[in-house]
Amino acid sequence: MADRDGLGALRARGIFVALLSFVAAILFAGAAAPAAHAAENDQLPKTLRVGTEGVYPPFSFHKGGELTGYDVDYFREVGKRLGVKVQFVETPWDSMFAGLNSGRIDIIANQVTKNEERIAQYDLSSPYVTTTGVVVTKKSDNSVKKLADLKGKKSAQNITSDWANTAKGAGANIVSVEGMDKAAALVEQGRADAFVNDELAVKYYLATHPNSDLKIALTTEDKSESVFTARKDTNITPAVSKVIDQMEADGTSKKLYDKYFTTKATGQSTWDVIKENFGSMLLATVKVTIPLTAVAFVVGLVLALGVALARLSSNAAISWLARAFISIFRGTPLLVQLFIIFFGLPELGLKLNPWISAGIALSLNVAAYAAEIIRSAILSVPKGQWEAAETIGMSRSTALKRIVLPQASRVAVPPLSNTLISLVKDTSLAATIGVTEVFHQSQIAAAPTSKFLGLYITAALIYWVLCFVLSIVQTRLEDRLGRHVAR
């Protein structure tokens, strides 16, 4: 009996040990999985900079001043599951891959279509949404029944997109636009015959623009797989792909899809859109446009004075360098200068943020134009003034500071004021490198609503008010400087 009891006790203890081992194995596996996952995620940056347009509804756009959209929400969830912070960098599509190549962004979330060229150049994630292309025409146009019917027609396309290649392959004449909203506007206005784009984006556009005169003429045969895109060998996309698989399995992907592609949205009146976005446009004016103008003008004037004096130097080498500076920055477009500084310099290891890049480009541009204004103003002062200063023992630098420049300033004020007014308007070009100034803010508001006229007029009025105030200041400054001048 005692042996039986002992045997039973041994059996019970064996079962207990087995259960403990089983529980320990489960706990160890559960702990090991996150540890492995964490080790894998340790290779990722703590903050992932994600490139997106911000003007491509329903994938990436602004609503109520906040960045939203299918791609935006999708990648926010990806970042959350990876345990990394997500920082969206709004970039025009044509500059998106330049930003990726220069290291300004780590990954693109903007409906990038998977193709052989991109497979060769970049690391691509698993597809997170699959769609197809559609050809859009005016409702009254029944001439496009197959893709080949685009031959000879004008198709409004973003020239760096896959849809542009589809239209071009069909023989269409490409009309370059920045986004689908502008393509739709050109077709409605009769300035283009059609455009090809993502079926989901087009259906969302038609749902949110019930009074649109557009229709889907046909669906293309090509299948578009959208992927997240990173630079080669960054080890970002494998981790992202695993999360995409998880989101597909647990139904998160479908919930996001239904949120943006099965819900009908209603359009807003132009006045409502202006009222909703006027505050953000004014804020962009105060926080970006005015400070950017002020900094660029002050720095540009300081540089201009140095360049003007170098231009007047008796040293041939110094004078030649000043001439070269003026020739280069007056003879090349400001937009090209912006792109060289923002996208080109990172190839040399110099990476500047958008605001500083814009400030440098604008300052150099101001310096080139203002240098010639200052030089001509100095030359307008009679030589007798220099001679008189020398006779009373003034050095050349003292004469310049106390005698020549005060007189030259009266001559320089009107043309320098024109330069300042032009600078206010030129800040709008900073939108191309992601600086959210007043014009870019109007573009953001116009993208999901297509209220181009009202919003662009509002932006134009803001610029006009700024320039009008500056013209009043110019007049008063001229009167003050000319108060003691003999008439």
TrEMBL record:
- Which keywords annotate this record? Amino-acid transport, Cell membrane, Membrane, Signal, Transmembrane, Transmembrane helix, Transport
The residues the entry assigns to the signal sequence are: 1-38
Q: Where does it live in the cell?
A: Cell membrane
The record places domain ABC transmembrane type-1 at 282-474
UniProt keyword Magnesium, yes or no: no
Q: Any transmembrane segments, and where?
A: 290-312, 324-343, 355-374, 452-473
Q: What superkingdom does the record give?
A: Bacteria
| Gene3D superfamilies, per database record | MetI-like, Periplasmic binding protein-like II
Its record classes its membrane topology as: Multi-pass membrane protein
> Which Pfam families does UniProt cross-reference here?
BPD_transp_1, SBP_bac_3
Identify its protein family: Belongs to the binding-protein-dependent transport system permease family.
Q: NCBIfam families of this UniProt entry?
A: HEQRo_perm_3TM
Q: What is this protein called?
A: ABC transporter permease subunit
Q: What is the lineage of its organism?
A: Bacteria, Bacillati, Actinomycetota, Actinomycetes, Micrococcales
